[in-house]
Amino acid sequence: MASRIEATPPRPESYEEREGYIVPIFGGRKKKKEAAFDSGVWRNSDAAAKERLTPPPSEVDEAQRAYSSSRSSEIARDLRELVRDSQIVEAPGELQTFAYDASFETQLRPRLPEAAVIAGSEEDVVAVMKYAHEHSIPVTTRGAASGQAAGAAPYAGGIVLAMNAMNRVIEVDGANLQAFCEPGVVHAQLNAALKPSGLVFPPDPGSSKMATVGGMASTNAAGMRALKYGATSAWVLGLNVVLPDGTLIETGSVGSRAKQSSAGLELTKLLVGAEGTLGVITRLRLKLMPIPPSRAIVTATFDDVEDAGRAVQETFAAGVSPSAIEILDERCIQSINKYRPGMDLPSVEAMLLFEVDGNPEGCRADAEKISEVVAPLSREVEWSDEPERIATLWEARSLVGAAIGALRPGSNRAYCGEDICAPVSRIPETLRKIQEISAKHDILIATYGHIGGGNLHPGHLIDARDPDEIRRVLLVADDIHALALEMGGTITGEHGVGAARVAYMEREHGPALDAMRAIKAALDPKGIMNPGKLFPDKVSDSQPEGPASPARVGENAEDERQIPVPHPDGAAQKPRHESPPLE
Ligand SMILES: Cc1cc2nc3c(=O)[nH]c(=O)nc-3n(C[C@H](O)[C@H](O)[C@H](O)COP(=O)(O)OP(=O)(O)OC[C@H]3O[C@@H](n4cnc5c(N)ncnc54)[C@H](O)[C@@H]3O)c2cc1C
Hints:
Blueprint: E1 14-18, E2 21-25, H1 45-50, H2 62-65, H3 70-80, E3 88-89, H4 92-95, H5 104-108, E4 115-118, H6 122-135, E5 139-142, E6 159-162, E7 169-173, E8 178-181, H7 187-194, E9 199-200, H8 213-219, H9 226-229, E10 236-242, E11 248-252, H10 267-271, E12 280-287, E13 289-290, E14 294-302, H11 305-317, E15 324-329, H12 330-339, E16 350-358, H13 360-374, E17 380-384, H14 387-403, E18 412-414, E19 420-421, H15 427-441, E20 444-450, E21 455-462, H16 467-486, H17 505-509, H18 512-523
Bound molecules: flavin-adenine dinucleotide.
Flavin-adenine dinucleotide is lined by residues 101-102, 140-148, 151-152, 163, 183, 205-207, 210-212, 214-216, 218-219, 221-223, 275-276, 280-281, 494-496, 498, 530, 533.
């Protein structure tokens, strides 16, 4: 049966600002109060008054809406031979969900797949990959779509393989400190399941309640405690992976349970961080550790951000290894005071929060040591190892993600250029330069991050209905990525490259990018796995033969569905996305 082209959600005719909130107005079609569509993006205006509205994603353009459903229904018909009917999504209205992740990139450039499959088993994945390989259909794997780099968006159409229903913790092997699980397990759920055994899977993304372990492995996700425990890659012992041609392989110690191995190339490490461009992760053997019995927190405020940077170095020099060191810049502090006036943080250039964990005596000794070395540099220092006080001291850090919006009521946070990592010694300089970029483009930026490892999250506040602000915030992102490289850092500390940062890969990696491309071509010669991500097209790539570049896959697809990318400087700069079939 041909799939029906469903009406997209109604467009608001205008927007009004009411009590600091942006409210969509839908003309005479519905009562203003009810005006809404229920896609999950917009809510009714009562709810909007409670929760600041996200602006509409850029409209799925007419061309995309009106695209022929023939390819979609053809793929869905074939998929029905492989998986159950209920596992297939083909209606364009429902497929819209799969056009987005949490990035700004997908708000600007949503793209529907032709079909989505909710994978229920490894066998489903093998069957879908074999089919896709045979017919050269692009496949994009998706976890929870909490990614901020457009990694899970199907930029060449094709099939989205949703892994979130494969969410069993298959085994917790306490004796060997390991868990074996499916990729759709949500991080917080895994740790909740481990808690009774006194064990933890330590990577700790802020998106813990959303992110799947498959997505975390694929982006090599981290978090504030990566300072002590490392990113996800340090905690993956082995994987089951379905390669692009449908072959199922085991890597590392999936079978052996050995906690270390020198037997050959580390395929596990290669696949972790590959963002679904080399295969589909279907099982993971994860390393665990005992939950640290105790922790303590130190907070310190600084009149000068340079002193905050020095305080971090002095802490390490004193022989202390905190589990986390977090920084809030001046604007974050202002936002928290607006959002939660009772906190009454001092008006300073920076605030640091240190966490130490381990045995109680060690925590106390470490917290005292940090306080001692930081005190001469700071305005105020406080530490505690009492759970209630820890919660209070940590509150500023817990609130900052939500609080930033209070700096500009009604604004939206544009997640672009939001995840750089610079050398720790250059963080104060990097923070100052971010503020220069903010002034240059007249975009409000508040920055926080994991200063102990150099990972910064600049938060840009814009009015997403204003095309000029969109243009300027994209320039901000360009400048911030360039700044990261200028500082001797990287364009992404933990969120990954996806489509959002693909344009910067050449600059960051130089000739090493060709080595990555060679690996990609060897494992995915047809270029069907997550095209348009990680690997930029070569500008001079005019070879008519040889392995298809990933982005060329879409040439045979119905590319009229592509959404144009607004580019900050129009023709003056190279397009951010250079893939011919996608543009
Ligand atoms: C509020 C918020 C806070 C965040 N905080 C952090 C943070 O502290 N640290 C951090 O690192 N990130 C953070 N993120 C980003 C995001 O949560 C992580 O990148 C996370 O790892 C993505 O997991 P996911 O399941 O949502 O993956 P998705 O977004 O669905 O996918 C991400 C990438 O992985 C691929 N992929 C997913 N599953 C598989 C699989 N089974 N096999 C192969 N490829 C797969 C996708 O194709 C895509 O390229 C945050 C995001 C939000 C919204």
